[in-house]
Q: What sequence folds into this?
Protein backbone atom coordinates (compact mmCIF):
# COMPACT_ATOMS: atom_id res chain seq x y z
CA UNK A 1 0.00 0.00 0.00
CA UNK A 2 2.96 2.28 0.15
CA UNK A 3 3.32 4.90 -2.51
CA UNK A 4 6.96 4.20 -3.15
CA UNK A 5 8.64 1.06 -4.29
CA UNK A 6 9.26 -0.28 -0.79
CA UNK A 7 7.72 -3.39 0.61
CA UNK A 8 4.72 -2.74 2.87
CA UNK A 9 5.19 -3.21 6.57
CA UNK A 10 2.58 -3.88 9.18
CA UNK A 11 2.80 -0.24 10.25
CA UNK A 12 2.10 1.10 6.76
CA UNK A 13 -0.77 -1.36 6.32
CA UNK A 14 -2.26 -0.31 9.66
CA UNK A 15 -1.99 3.38 8.75
CA UNK A 16 -3.72 2.75 5.43
CA UNK A 17 -6.56 0.87 7.13
CA UNK A 18 -6.98 3.70 9.64
CA UNK A 19 -7.06 6.27 6.84
CA UNK A 20 -9.74 4.32 4.95
CA UNK A 21 -11.77 3.91 8.14
CA UNK A 22 -11.73 7.70 8.73
CA UNK A 23 -12.92 8.26 5.15
CA UNK A 24 -15.74 5.73 5.54
CA UNK A 25 -16.87 7.18 8.87
CA UNK A 26 -16.96 10.66 7.41
CA UNK A 27 -19.04 9.42 4.47
CA UNK A 28 -21.54 7.68 6.77
CA UNK A 29 -22.23 10.86 8.75
CA UNK A 30 -22.67 12.82 5.54
CA UNK A 31 -25.11 10.22 4.17
CA UNK A 32 -27.13 10.34 7.43
CA UNK A 33 -27.29 14.14 7.22
CA UNK A 34 -28.55 13.95 3.62
CA UNK A 35 -31.18 11.38 4.61
CA UNK A 36 -32.40 13.58 7.45
CA UNK A 37 -32.58 16.61 5.16
CA UNK A 38 -34.54 14.63 2.58
CA UNK A 39 -37.16 13.46 5.12
CA UNK A 40 -40.60 14.83 4.31
CA UNK A 41 -41.46 17.92 6.30
CA UNK A 42 -44.99 18.57 7.53
CA UNK A 43 -47.02 20.62 5.10
CA UNK A 44 -48.18 23.88 6.59
CA UNK A 45 -50.67 26.14 4.86
CA UNK A 46 -52.17 29.49 5.71
CA UNK A 47 -55.94 29.83 5.95
CA UNK A 48 -57.93 32.92 4.94
CA UNK A 49 -58.21 35.34 7.86
CA UNK A 50 -61.52 36.99 6.93
CA UNK A 51 -64.67 34.95 7.65
CA UNK A 52 -66.20 36.02 4.33
CA UNK A 53 -63.32 34.19 2.58
CA UNK A 54 -63.84 30.91 4.45
CA UNK A 55 -65.51 28.00 2.64
CA UNK A 56 -69.22 27.93 3.35
CA UNK A 57 -72.63 26.58 2.45
CA UNK A 58 -76.22 27.75 2.27
CA UNK A 59 -77.56 24.18 2.08
CA UNK A 60 -79.70 22.67 4.82
CA UNK A 61 -78.09 19.26 4.21
CA UNK A 62 -74.63 18.39 5.48
CA UNK A 63 -72.05 19.72 3.03
CA UNK A 64 -68.34 18.78 3.27
CA UNK A 65 -66.33 22.02 3.25
CA UNK A 66 -62.73 21.02 4.00
CA UNK A 67 -60.87 17.74 4.32
CA UNK A 68 -57.45 16.54 5.37
CA UNK A 69 -55.77 13.25 4.49
CA UNK A 70 -53.74 12.08 7.47
CA UNK A 71 -51.33 9.49 8.69
CA UNK A 72 -52.52 7.52 11.72
CA UNK A 73 -52.31 9.55 14.89
CA UNK A 74 -53.92 11.92 17.33
CA UNK A 75 -54.99 15.42 16.29
CA UNK A 76 -56.71 18.43 17.74
CA UNK A 77 -59.07 19.93 15.18
CA UNK A 78 -59.47 23.66 15.74
CA UNK A 79 -62.64 25.03 14.12
CA UNK A 80 -63.62 28.62 13.68
CA UNK A 81 -67.14 29.03 12.38
CA UNK A 82 -69.76 31.72 11.85
CA UNK A 83 -73.35 31.67 10.58
CA UNK A 84 -75.63 34.42 9.27
CA UNK A 85 -78.67 33.10 11.12
CA UNK A 86 -77.83 29.68 12.55
CA UNK A 87 -76.09 26.47 11.64
CA UNK A 88 -74.10 23.44 12.68
CA UNK A 89 -70.60 22.20 11.99
CA UNK A 90 -69.36 18.66 12.51
CA UNK A 91 -66.08 16.79 12.32
CA UNK A 92 -66.12 13.45 10.51
CA UNK A 93 -63.17 11.15 11.22
CA UNK A 94 -62.67 8.21 8.85
CA UNK A 95 -66.38 8.31 7.93
CA UNK A 96 -67.76 8.58 11.48
CA UNK A 97 -69.17 11.77 13.04
CA UNK A 98 -67.21 12.63 16.18
CA UNK A 99 -68.75 15.90 17.31
CA UNK A 100 -71.35 18.45 16.16
CA UNK A 101 -71.17 22.10 17.20
CA UNK A 102 -73.87 24.79 16.98
CA UNK A 103 -72.82 27.94 15.14
CA UNK A 104 -74.17 31.47 15.69
CA UNK A 105 -73.58 34.93 14.26
CA UNK A 106 -70.36 35.45 16.22
CA UNK A 107 -67.13 33.76 15.20
CA UNK A 108 -66.64 30.88 17.59
CA UNK A 109 -63.59 28.71 18.17
CA UNK A 110 -63.94 25.05 19.07
CA UNK A 111 -61.23 22.45 19.74
CA UNK A 112 -62.00 18.78 19.20
CA UNK A 113 -59.52 15.99 20.02
CA UNK A 114 -59.64 13.09 17.54
CA UNK A 115 -57.65 10.03 16.50
CA UNK A 116 -57.60 9.49 12.75
CA UNK A 117 -56.28 6.80 10.44
CA UNK A 118 -56.94 8.27 7.01
CA UNK A 119 -59.21 11.30 6.67
CA UNK A 120 -60.68 14.26 8.55
CA UNK A 121 -63.67 16.10 7.04
CA UNK A 122 -65.40 19.22 8.33
CA UNK A 123 -69.00 19.52 7.15
CA UNK A 124 -71.61 22.21 7.80
CA UNK A 125 -75.29 22.92 7.29
CA UNK A 126 -77.60 25.88 7.70
CA UNK A 127 -80.31 25.51 10.36
CA UNK A 128 -81.60 29.07 10.23
CA UNK A 129 -84.15 30.42 7.77
CA UNK A 130 -81.62 32.09 5.46
CA UNK A 131 -77.93 32.82 5.13
CA UNK A 132 -74.81 30.70 5.16
CA UNK A 133 -72.42 28.88 7.45
CA UNK A 134 -68.68 29.46 6.97
CA UNK A 135 -65.82 27.45 8.49
CA UNK A 136 -62.06 27.39 8.69
CA UNK A 137 -60.24 24.45 10.25
CA UNK A 138 -56.77 23.55 11.45
CA UNK A 139 -55.45 20.14 12.49
CA UNK A 140 -52.68 20.14 15.08
CA UNK A 141 -50.81 16.87 15.43
CA UNK A 142 -50.35 15.43 18.89
A:
Amino acid sequence: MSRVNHPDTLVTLLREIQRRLRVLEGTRHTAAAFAAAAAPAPVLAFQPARPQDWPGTTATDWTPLVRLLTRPGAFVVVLEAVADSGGEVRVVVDGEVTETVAVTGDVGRHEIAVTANAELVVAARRTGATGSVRVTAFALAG
